[in-house]
Amino acid sequence: MNAERIEEFLSAVKSAFAGNTLIKLRLSGYHGAEADLKSIDVKKIVAKGSEKFSFTFHYKTRDIIKNHIQPEALGHLRTALRHEFRSAQLATSEFDLSFERNGDKVRLKRTEIAGREAPSTEHNRAKNRPLTETDKPYLQALGISGKDGQVRNDAQDKFRQINKMVEIFAPLIQAIKADKPVIVDMGAGKGYLDFALYDYLANVAKRPAEVIGVEMRGKLVEDGNATAAASGFSDLRFVPGTILDYDAAGADAVIALHACDTATDDAIFRGISAGASLIAVAPCCHKQIRRQMEAGRPAPQLDVLLRHGIFLERQAEMVTDALRALLLELSGYRTKVFEFVSDAHTPKNNLIVAEKDGRAGRDRDAVLKQIVEVKAMFGVEKHYLEGLLGL
Ligand SMILES: C[S@@+](CC[C@H](N)C(=O)[O-])C[C@H]1O[C@@H](n2cnc3c(N)ncnc32)[C@H](O)[C@@H]1O
After folding, report:
1. How far apart are CA 78 and CA 59, in angstroms?
2. 259-292: per-residue pLDDT in tens?
3. For a pocket test of ligand 1, which of 142, 219, 260, 268 has the largest count of ligand atoms closer than 8 A to its C-beta?
């Protein structure tokens, strides 16, 4: 066994971590026991003042992130390289190192790299935020920056959050094949995301988009349009009305962040009807499925969970979102669910991201069967979104 080669690879990972030169480590060629695990990406983060390895486990339809301190992380990597993954690619700012295992034989290949930028961690993240200019009319109108153009002390957290949103959404929008994608944000509220995303795409990424915020509260629509005009954001507008009444035809992306209760389903439905390439929703509270689970007959094996109110509530939320994800798959979307902000900000921090992918529609019968099974297991009669989709 090439144990020394594995240790040599781990030692390179350890040095890159210590020297802040680790850009990314990817493990692929999985042949272990976990169903649907495809690959793992590993990077360095600094969370609450402590340095950690952040592992993103990529499964077929979801990502899971786990952070580990160094000794733990190296232990997991050792096991993974010995028994579970055939390939690994370490990228640092100085060299790339590839690892290939074939049975007991391990091959390492090192390529020196010049001029690659050193990676950033949470340490120096502030410098690397997508939105660095803070003297903007919209940031003042939203109460994030003060009159001096600086982010207010009490709005640092909000500014961090909107930057995080831009970090998540901008690449998804930029991946859309349209010269000037049309993004519809359902239940836009004050439009934090819309202003930030518009500003970033138009002024930083130079990949402009048309952004439309749909909101039923007229005052927010008025304020949003006034601020868009004052900012010179000519392709950002807010329209009054309900999500369900808004015909999103022509939208490339339909987004909804914390649209209350079934308004999230209205947004998904509008996105599917429009044939949007991207649908991304961060659901809010949703009571319909919980009521059905309480009134219905979930499988008796679930009693142990469902008899506790708090578990029932969480389980109902998961079933609600799992069915949303399946219904999106049924409609021809490749779907992932992941945490998009820390749960320190909000417990409603799941993001369902669905990208249109004709191939997904091919598994229709299998997906329909899963929907029927999940509903039967949890005693659910009908998801509100099923009704909208005419199922
Ligand atoms: C919790 S706020 C979130 C606002 C914004 N998306 C954000 O994340 O900052 C939900 C917003 O959706 C709006 N809303 C809820 N249901 C709606 C519906 N059916 N049609 C239009 N707007 C709706 C509410 O008025 C509210 O402004």
Report:
1. 20
2. 988 999 999 999 999 999 999 999 987 889 999 9
3. 260
- For the chain, the first-to-last Cα distance in angstroms comes to 56
What gap in Å lies between CA 134 and CA 52, rounded to an integer? 30
Q: Does residue 127 form part of some domain?
A: no
For ligand 1, which residues put their CB under 6 angstroms from it?
Answer: 187-189, 192, 214-217, 242-243, 257-260, 263, 266
- 41/9 same-domain check: yes
What pLDDT sits at residue 349?
A: 78
303: CATH:
3.40.50.150
261 CA to centre of ligand 1 in angstroms: 10
Q: Give the residue-averaged pLDDT of 78-98.
A: 93
pLDDT digits (tens, 9 = 90+) for 304-322: 989 999 999 999 999 999 9
User: What CA–CA distance (Å, rounded) separates 47 from 31?
Assistant: 31
Q: What is the DSSP string of 293-316?
A: HHHS---GGGHHHHTSHHHHHHHH
Do 38 and 163 fall into the same domain? no
The CA–CA distances, whole Å, from 283 to 316, 325, 364 equal 13, 12, 24
- pLDDT at position 123, please? 44
Using alpha carbons, list the distances in angstroms from residue 295 to 289, 298, 371: 10, 9, 19
- Ligand 1 centre distance from Cα of residue 327 (Å): 22
* Least reliable range by pLDDT among 54-58, 140-144, 199-203, 218-222: 54-58
DSSP-based three-state secondary structure for 347: coil
Query: Among the atoms of ligand 1, which is closest to the Cα of residue 256?
Result: 6
E strands, the chain, where?
Answer: 22-30, 37-47, 50-59, 63-68, 85-92, 95-102, 105-112, 182-186, 210-215, 236-240, 253-257, 278-282, 333-339, 350-356
Q: Which domain holds residue 188?
A: 133-388
**Residue 128 lies inside a defined structural domain of this protein:** no
In a domain? residue 121: no
Q: What is the pTM of this model?
A: 0.71
User: How many structural domains is the chain composed of?
Assistant: 2
Cα(144) to centroid(ligand 1), Å: 20
Same domain, 55 and 139: no
